[in-house]
Write a structure and sequence with these properties.
The chain is an alpha+beta fold. It is 27% helix and 21% strand. It has nine helices and 14 strands. It has an eight-stranded mixed beta sheet with strand order 1-2-10-7-12-5-4-3. β8 and β9 form a beta hairpin. α2 packs across α5. The longest helix is centred in the middle third of the chain and has 26 residues. The radius of gyration is 19 Å and the shape is globular. The protein binds N-oxalylglycine and nickel (II) ion.
């Protein structure tokens, strides 16, 4: 990947005119809701009307955009800033140093670029470091950077807090649909996974032809994203338009993944999203994905299936592997999981 003014190599040029196209989006169109999730964790100390309102906002956001910006999440701003800082320091290391953590071709964890599955594949203008963070005993610490020296501690501190945020979100999502507590979370199991992905997007001379990340939906249950504190680029696809997700430095972007769309029987949406490139500023983000224990089968919650809304999806096991197989065949996992 070149970061000077050279033309990007062919493999990065987006050619098709569908979701990956570079049509410009009007920033005045649509917006991403902002939700105070503090209200969900301490609902008893708030005015019931206010609580009811926030649940309604949540339900509505997840049924339409499948995405919102969470404030009131309780993770200290200073920790978010430190996490961005160690990520920046890691990506700024010389290539040889970063390659100590290189991902093997057939593996998921480690540092590198896109997994290449076909010659026709268009590549993303980014490098990533992917790490399993929970269950803790499955961490492969040889992939966790030694440099900067506080990387491991800060990531650990962040993900412990993030796990609490994800628990609050699960409960709030269940409650917003009047489901029994655990309807979603119990499907994930006691040893559900959380994976972290540090994304690095260098400047690119052709933002009109190259994407930081092509349009995709996440295969997770829920994704929580810490955006760059200055540089935007993330867009969500809604009503046939790409909507910018504005930078709010200490908010967390929550977007649902395919497995939440399946469990909610299609009521909640797993949005298509993408990342644009720009010519002069690098961008860093930290995405965290929760996923069920790989052996657990997930499927639509019974309470959400009735005559008016028949079962849309079959039960699936190890959706991560299923998703990868579909990707290799050029198919969309969420479509393949339909009945
Ligand atoms: C992802 C993703 C968006 C971003 O990692 O799946 O969509 O802003 N990232 O980096
Ligand atoms: Ni994504």
């Amino acid at each position: 990947m070149s970061i000077n003014s050279e033309e990007p190599p062919q493999e990065y040029i987006v050619k098709d005119s569908s979701f990956g196209s570079m049509e410009s989006s009007d920033p005045s169109l649509g917006s991403i809701p902002i939700i105070d999730i503090n209200i969900f964790s301490l609902s008893s100390s708030h005015d019931p009307k206010e609580v009811e309102n926030e649940f309604e906002k949540l339900r509505s956001a997840l049924c339409s955009e499948g995405c919102f910006q969470a404030i009131g999440h309780g993770i200290p701003s200073s920790l978010l800033d430190k996490l961005r800082e160690v990520a920046k320091q890691f990506f700024a290391l010389p290539a040889e140093e970063k390659h100590k953590y290189s991902r093997a071709a057939h593996e998921v964890e480690g540092y590198g670029q896109d997994r290449v599955v076909s010659e026709k594949q268009i590549l993303d203008w980014s490098s990533r470091l992917s790490l399993m963070v929970f269950p803790e005993d499955q961490r492969r610490l040889n992939f966790w950077p030694e440099n900067p020296s506080d990387f491991k501690d800060i990531l650990h501190e962040y993900v412990v807090k993030l796990k609490g945020v994800m628990d609050i979100l699960f409960k709030a999502m269940e409650k917003s649909l009047n489901l029994v507590e655990g309807s979603f979370s119990s499907q994930f199991g006691d040893n559900s996974l959380i994976k972290a992905r540090f994304n690095f997007y260098p400047p690119c001379s052709r933002p009109d032809m190259v994407l930081g990340v092509k349009a995709h939906s996440d295969r997770s249950g829920t994704t929580v994203l810490l955006q760059d504190d200055e540089v935007g680029g993330l867009q969500i696809f809604k009503d046939d338009k790409w909507i910018n997700v504005p930078v709010i430095p200490h908010a967390l972007v929550v977007n649902l993944g395919d497995q939440m769309q399946i469990m909610s029987n299609g009521i909640f949406k797993s949005p298509l999203h993408r990342v644009l490139t720009n010519t002069d500023k690098l961008r860093i983000s930290v995405a965290t994905f929760n996923e069920p224990e790989p052996d657990k089968e997930i499927g639509p919650v019974e309470q959400l299936i009735d005559e008016e809304r028949p079962r849309l999806y079959r039960n699936v096991k190890n959706f991560a592997a299923f998703n990868y197989e579909c990707f290799q065949k050029g198919k969309v996992a969420l479509e393949e999981a339909k009945i």
